[in-house]
Design a protein that fits this description.
Radius of gyration: 29 Å
Order of helices and strands: HHEEEEEEEH
Strand content: 15-25%
Helix content: 25-40%
Largest sheet: 5 strands, antiparallel
Strand order of the largest sheet: 2-1-7-6-5
Number of strands: 7
Shape: extended
Distance between the termini: 100 Å
Length: about 190
């Protein structure tokens, strides 16, 4: 009886181990064609930072350097002409950025941060950003060119917003829309 119990326990343990091992191997990503997920070892600098992290740190440093000057261009997406040019003292700031959070609570929930609003202590679930503000920035890409100049590029509707810490040499682009105009006249009957 003891041998049979031991054998049953050993079989049960073996089946359990196979189930655990099979479940563990199911986590590997494999495409429908049988290709395994690829991984890569990302190189870091001597401080342990990736190029992406260095770009973000450099952007935050440049954006928050007192007295810095940037150049803002609003460019027509249709003609390529500069509609507005302006120097920018400091940085361009998104209208959705704030110095205080939108929502506060009594602090009873988990993951809350204590904040002072006037003389009242409150709590919020919003995380203070790297730049010391709450809220989201507009969607944009940014980069540093080979001369070290900083660029931000926003795309929206019929205009392109480009911000740089160096002036750009912008050339006019002429787009011929005569064919489009004559097609509109034929289809609508209007001039």
């Amino acid at each position: 009886m003891k041998k049979q119990l031991r054998f049953s326990m050993l079989m049960l343990f073996s089946v359990f181990a196979l189930i655990v091992l099979k479940a563990d191997s199911c986590g590997d990503a494999v495409s429908s064609s049988g290709v395994n997920k690829a991984t890569v070892q990302v190189q870091t600098d001597v401080k342990g930072n990736t190029v992406e992290q260095v770009n973000i740190m450099d952007r935050l440093t440049r954006d928050n350097t007192p007295g810095s000057i940037k150049h803002l261009y609003v460019i027509s997406a249709y003609s390529g002409q500069v509609i507005i040019y302006s120097t920018v003292k400091g940085k361009v700031t998104s209208g959705s950025k704030r110095l205080s959070p939108k929502t506060v609570n009594d602090g009873s929930g988990s993951g809350t941060f204590r904040i002072d609003i006037g003389n009242v202590q409150a709590h919020t679930n919003e995380v203070l950003g790297d730049d010391g503000t709450y809220g989201e920035s507009g969607d944009y890409i940014f980069w540093f060119d080979v001369r070290g100049a900083y660029h931000q590029h926003y795309l929206s509707g019929g205009q392109i917003v480009h911000i740089s810490d160096q002036p750009l040499a912008v050339s006019n682009i002429i787009i011929n829309i005569e064919q489009v105009a004559s097609t509109d006249v034929k289809s609508t009957g209007k001039k």
